[in-house]
Amino acid sequence: MYRDRPLPPPFANQVINRLIKEAAKKAEINVLTMVEKFSGSNRTVITKPKYAFISTHTGRRTFITLSHEKGMNIEMIMKITGIKKWDTLKKYLKISEKSKLIKMNEFWKRSNIQEISIK
Prior knowledge:
This protein is an alpha+beta fold.
């Protein structure tokens, strides 16, 4: 059935997420991590080892963020990920403060953040 397919056969999302968590646990990605969840005005804080929160969704967000930081244009990221709306992509794109500073310095041709002085 999948002989002509260049990729391995698909797995159910639940199976892939379980395998990702197992791999992350073996890789000792186990720093205790707190996650806040909201349901209306109710706030719940969950604390677990970091591997327990890693999933395919984590990979998608990481791919989108790193691709953008490396300079891939937004349209290409959307084509690759199958995202059709900018508002959806914005939910995945998390730009770090460090990345903002690096890009600002690249744009202004500064090699070192310490060169910028405020007078």
